[in-house]
Amino acid sequence: MSSEEMHIEPAPEKGFFDNIFPRQVEPKGLIGWLTTIDHKRIGILYGVTALFWFLVGGLEALMIRIQLHTSDFRGFISAETYNSLFTMHGTTMIFLVVMPLAVAFFNYVMPLQIGARDVAFPRMNAFSYWMFLFASILLNISWFFGEAPHMSWVGYAPITEIQYTPGMAGEFWIIGLQLLGVASIVGSLNFITTIINMRAPGMTFMRMPVFSWMTLVTGFLIILAFPAITICLAELMFDRLFGTNFFQAAAGGLPILWQHLFWVFGHPEVYILILPPMGMVSEILPVFSRRPLFGYPLIVGSGIAIGLMGFTVWSHHMFTSGLGNIATAAFALTTMAIAVPTGVKIFNWIGTLYKGQLIMATPMLFSLGFIYQFMMGGFSGLMHANAVHDLQQHDSYFIVAHFHYVLIGGALFGTFAGLYYWFPKVTGRKLDEKFGKFVFWFLFVGFNLTFFPMHWLGLNGMPRRIYTYSPNMGWDTINMVCTFGALLMAVAVVVFFWDLFRTAKSGQVAGFDPWDARTVEWSIPNPPPVYNFKDTPQVKCLDDFWYAKYPETMVHDEDETMHPSDYVAADPAVHGHSHDDHGIHMPGGSWFPMFAALGFCIGGFGIVMHGFFIPDPVAAKSMSTLSILLREYWLAILGGLMGVASVFAWAMEPIGGYNIHFKEEDNK
Amino acid sequence: MPKRYLKAVSGPLSRILLALLAILNTGCVNEVRGTLNPLGPVAERQMSTFMVTLWVSLGMFVVVGSFLVYCLVKFHHKGEITKDTPLPDQSHGNALTEIGLILISVFLVGIIALPTVQGVFYVGTLPSDQKVYEVNVTGLQWWWKFEYPEYGVVTANEIAIPAGRPVKFNLQTADVLHSFWVPRLGGKMDLNPGQDNWLWLQADPEMLAADAKELSTSGGSPRWAHLPADYPFQGYVLYGQCAEYCGSSHAFMQFRVLVLDDANFQKWVEWQKSDSKSTLTAGEVAQGQAVFMKNKCQTCHTVRGTNAKGLVGPDLTHIGSRTSIAAGWLENTPENLGHWIQKPGELKPENIMYVTGYQHTDKWGGLVNNSQIVVTDEERDVLAKYLYSLK
Q1: Confidence of residue A664 (pLDDT cuts 50, 70, 90)
Q2: In whole angstroms, what is the distance from residue A296 CA to residue A546 CA?
């Protein structure tokens, strides 16, 4: 929208803090990004940050594969470094890549899909992002202290206890995850509120796109699952810092409690990772098959069912921990039950393809790769549900193969499909098809070459998380194949990033609705104007935008009351404008979400660094407990105070910003 | 009913699949044997239920996969889509198809569920119709301590079990989590602090004999089948490993299981109970013991029949008779023993003997334990010779 068609009028409100940290009227330049509360910009920030960590996590994975390419390989990296690498690879890929990439799409796409101006709490949204960014940095600066976490991403007590993991590695991991949890929970509350309250008129829940549905389900999973890990991390932190005994068996603690709490979080977490890509694929398949999603209510219903059932299966991660026969059998059955809604989704996706008009563009290829690989991961999941043989599979490379099939083959392929699909929405430019296909095929072949043979390794006794293996085992050849596959994937990733940068700068302009899409986010220009929709869309049915374009394709079920002629009424000239004479109000940016996140993360860093400030034992004898604690945790306290003060300032801050007025003729 | 049910579903089909897997095995690495080549009833039961799951999955894979491929080939639209391109079918679901697919899924899951639940109880229940041998297992960072409470035998990183007899392993850990796993005898079980976990395994003599024969005729190395030729008894050797991440040297925490017949097992027990006997001359033994004591090895290690009575590290009474050293990582030869004694940190990073006992540099380059052990080349050779002679 050029400035000729509209003019901007600054909002008059100014608060006390505007004198100290002046705010921009309109976001511009670096400060515009630092103070942004626009869901689209925050979405981009999330995406770019997550993609950066994707490179870091990928590099860690490559080093792991190089280390394992042959038996008894030493001298490349030490066992300790290797243990840090697989710990940080897992933590990074789950918490810093797959989750935030999904959040990037929640942020960017979901409000557009439901026809909203922004999320419900824009400044809280910014706070989530900065919290995520600073926490991810906190987690990774551990490398520079030589104290990168090395207790594996599940951190099974008691190896995380102070006597087995002395030093800062434990605190880096605990505090990093705790702060990331804050970001996730705050974000989820925001998305849930947005979806429940801010859908466009006419968008009932059963007219809501599947991706927004999965955002809602994922949001609930996060706020229900994260408290469990928050609790066990807090208990572990108390054990480490203040000598409590939650997981100290010698003092009557219960290490197995960690496993239960962790997996009460950990299993829903798996669905937190996979449901958003499932939503993306459910958007993409109909578009590139040019027909409606097969069984929309069932896809949505099975997504909800998977989310709920995800809370009933956690102990299938613990079949070897001595649960007893009854519990083992029960959790085996609940786990098998979850295969049914998952299978339903796959059937419905393939049902969408049936009788369609399949266009093999890159987003479609990634979605098809997703279906195939997720199906394979589902089968090996079913094999784990067989608790009898799971005793053999557990903690072997069979498991490694399984979860990479669902997390790379499933989640990452689905997210890549989403990236290729919504990239024109975000940048107004289309990623190159030739490069896209190259990236897809290299990733597809490389991925299957890396991870399919791992099933065989696991069945033949190779445990996971081992630094090296004996030449006697005969695992060399297959490991070499896996490493070769990983290199192919690395090639794909390099080309992908190169194409991403190239296209963002000077790629082919996508134009309006480049995919002939179905949902309302494509009814506005690419990239969308800062205010999203000039007129709030009036939603008449599922896939509203498609039926606005092709009203004749509407198939009327008996219980449907809609009629193609309804679309005539959607003309804004008839319905009037959703904005009144004041124009569209755009809120001003704010420094305080970032300051608050920075404060809390400095506080977290203070806890990590507390060891440097412990007074020496002789001097400590003459000090009170309070003064010892104050000396030890001064940075933590300072950071916490900065966080709280920033939240206070943020609460006192007026909205500010500006109003957008459109010229009369533009309103037609 | 359960066995027949299992056999009917998995019997003929699994033979075909096993043949395919065998081709893969011979194609790449013909001596590799794992959970798909069970050597006892527990592992066999686990594999047969796995085969049920595998076949159900494979059936679904073929049906669903073919339909997917059919759709991709049949409905692939080549060429440009223009305004005039007719739109495809616009239906959006079919209630009967969907309900039917759900019911089929439930049925298929049911096929897997039944043998799974039966198997869980089989694997998780001790056989009650015969004598069960017991072994107390203690996991430590990064080695295994094995005790036979019935016989008063203590050993490390190598156990013998009687063929054809159920053996109950009582699992305890002295520090962090570990997991006890002998892939060819059965699945694993964690060693959890503060918890009394156990599992039972049994080696089947006929399966062992058949497997060893197959390995020797297929041209594969029988490395993991027979005990070494110089071992006092005939029998089989299987490898085991810690399967739960337990710290820096998790990868190097292995062990070996010797399977002996009843008579040889009793002889082995008597032998292990006895004090250590060296094959060297009295003078050489005295020299070896002197170096042993000089380096304070007795602080942690026991050699029964000598003054070494330490309880922290592995029992070394019969170390010369073991097939491996350094928790299953190295074959037991004087050279490997010497390497291990002189530079344990090189083989097993962070191990307690090295970290607390030996002079070394930490990761920042600082010298640690500068008053502690430094094993010279001469001492290394004397010690290796002495320990290797402890049969």
Answers
A1: low
A2: 15
- H or E segment and range at residue A373: helix A362-385
- Restricting to A residues 511-530, those with a Cβ less than 8 Å away from any Cβ of B are 516
Structure-block tokens of residue A668: 């037609």
pLDDT at A305 over 50: yes
- Please tell me the distance from the alpha carbon of residue B16 to that of residue B55, in angstroms, as a whole number: 11
- Buried b / exposed e over A478-490, threshold 16 CB at 10 Å, is bbebbbebbbbbb
Q: Which residues in chain A touch residue B247, judged by CB atoms under 8 angstroms apart?
A: 83, 159, 164
| Token code pair at residue A15 | 């608060």
Q: Of the ranges A393-402, A553-562, A613-622, B264-273, which one carries the lowest mean pLDDT score?
A: A553-562
More confident residue, B111 or A655: B111
Residue pLDDT, tens place only, A476-531: 889 999 999 999 999 999 999 999 999 988 888 988 999 999 999 999 998 999 99
Alpha-carbon gap, residue A481 to A107, rounded angstroms: 39
Question: What pLDDT score does A574 carry?
Answer: 41
- Token digits of residue A191: 């998305």
Contact assignment for B119 to A360 by CB distance below 8 Å? no
**CB A325 within 8 Å of CB A319:** no
Q: Tell me, what's the pLDDT at A536? A: 87
SS3 B133: strand
Q: For strands B167-173 and B143-148, give the pairing.
A: unpaired
What kind and span of H or E run contains A414? helix A413-427
Closest among A465, A467, A604, A385 to A156, alpha carbons compared: A465
Residue with the two structure tokens 């705050």: A186
Secondary structure element (H or E) that encloses residue B153, with its range: strand B153-156
- Residue B36 CA to residue B112 CA, distance in Å, equals 18
Burial letters A2-13, b for 16+ CB under 10 A, else e: eeeebeeeebee
Q: Say which residue the tokens 């099939």 belong to.
A: A405
Chain A nearest C-alpha distance from B57 (Å) = 6
| Mean pLDDT score of chain A | 90
Amino acid (1-letter code) at residue B308: A
Nearest CA in chain A to B240: A461
| Helices A362-385 and A397-404, packing angle to 10 deg | 140
Cα–Cα dist B386/B379, whole Å: 10
- Residue identified by tokens 């699992």 is B171
> Quick check: B173 and B192 in contact, CB under 8 A?
yes
Which residues are bridge partners to B302 per DSSP?
B309
Residue B67 has pLDDT above 80, yes or no: yes
Q: What is the pLDDT of residue A451?
A: 95
User: What's B373's DSSP letter?
Assistant: B
Complex ipTM: 0.90
User: For B112-163, how does the pLDDT look when each residue is reduced to its tens digit (9 = 90+)?
Assistant: 999 999 999 999 999 999 999 999 999 999 999 999 999 999 999 999 999 9
Q: What percent of chain A has pLDDT over 70?
A: 94
Whether chain B has a CB inside 8 Å of the CB on A251: the answer is no
How many whole angstroms separate alpha carbon A197 and alpha carbon A115?
A: 11
pLDDT in tens, A180-210: 999 999 999 999 999 999 999 989 999 999 9
A206 touches chain B (CB under 8 A): no
Neighbours of B172 (CB within 10 A): 20
Task: Name the nearest CA neighbour of A657 among A108, A131, A122.
Answer: A122
**Per-residue pLDDT at B14:** 56
Task: Identify which of A488, A444, A487 has the alpha carbon closest to the alpha carbon of residue A66.
Answer: A487
Q: Which residues contact A657 (CB under 8 A, 6 or more apart)?
A: A10, A11, A25, A585, A586, A587, A588
DSSP letter, residue A409: I
Count CA atoms within 13 Å of residue A346 on its CB side: 25
What values do phi and psi take at B155, rounded to 5?
A: -145, 180
* Facing residue for A295 by CB, picked from B88, B89, B98: B98
